[in-house]
Amino acid sequence: GLVTAIDMVNYWQKVFKTNGIPEARESSQYIVSFVLGAKTFQSLDSKSLHTPLTALHQEQIQQLSHKRLQRMPVQYVLGEWDFQDLTLKMRPPVFIPRPETEDLVSLVVEEEFQKCENSALGFPVPVPRPVILEIGCGSGAIALSLLCKLPQPNMFTCTQKQFPGEGLDSELIGKMLGLRASCHSFTFLGSAKQLLLWGPIDVIVSNPPYIFHEDMASLDAEILRYEDLDALDGGDDGMRVIKTILALAPSLLKASGSVFLEVDPRHPNMVEHWLQVHPDLQLTLHATHKDFCGKPRFLHIQKQSS
């Protein structure tokens, strides 16, 4: 019989719900709207919602829905996902950017624009392009967003391991920005020598692995089956990579340079205590910011000026 987009959403919502798929309705809406060329189901017009679907559209929806039934995250099912104003390609095991990480980007952007305003008030000279290092680039969501939102930053990214397709694609950057910003990506294998070549740095930003190891087993099946667990597991206290970043920061940052981190809500007090135990690093927890759920999620750590 004749099947519309609404019929398909209702049908697959029931199938997903019966099979214990989380966010059953949202998953079915994303898949149907994607096949029909829309970002969201709500953006489809009345004609698209009520016109009978072609056999090809029905087949495509069925194929994608069967992937979701295997607990594949909807981001991987669609092969793309929006982050800020970008549409990023997604495929396992590249880390899927979460909505809260958009707030991390916004904090860095606000900090840099504040510097520009302060500089303009006191010194009528051009503000130099900020040098920003991202550690652990994953899908490239953070770096690409900063390249788009900041006035021509010198952006560097590094990662501790390289997947096929991970890291920043120079062709993609060229298309997006017309090569108006310089960007470099390299693999970091535990030595700071490569990083020190690019210093001094204005900002280090990272969404590092921060989940406590004991919490890993309780993650959703979508995460455990498809995403790279090394991008999530932060060790016994969730601070294995965080400590590495903070230990490197003083030798990389300019005076009064900043580190912006996304962390577990339990980490702000732990990080503050750790910095107090390591006064030689000359780092201070400048501010803690909450996510949209009201949980302390983002740290702004500053290098003390000499």
Derived from helix and strand composition plus strand pairing, the structural class reads alpha/beta
The strand line-up of the biggest sheet is 5-4-3-6-7-9-8
* Percent in helix: 40-55%
Mean of pLDDT: 86
**Number of helical stretches of at least 4 residues:** 12
What's the Cα radius of gyration? Answer: 22 Å
Strand content: 15-25%
Silhouette: elongated
Which blocks of ≥5 consecutive residues have pLDDT under 50?
162-171
Terminal CA distance reads: 75 Å
Number of DSSP strands?
A: 9
Supply the number of structural domains.
2
Relevant CATH superfamily of the largest domain: Vaccinia Virus protein VP39
Q: Output the CATH topology of the largest domain.
A: Rossmann fold
Protein name: HEMK1 methyltransferase
Domain Release factor glutamine methyltransferase N-terminal: 8-79
Keywords: Methyltransferase, Transferase
GO molecular function: methyltransferase activity; nucleic acid binding
Structure described in brief:
This is HEMK1 methyltransferase. The chain has 306 residues and is α/β, with parallel strands linked by helices.
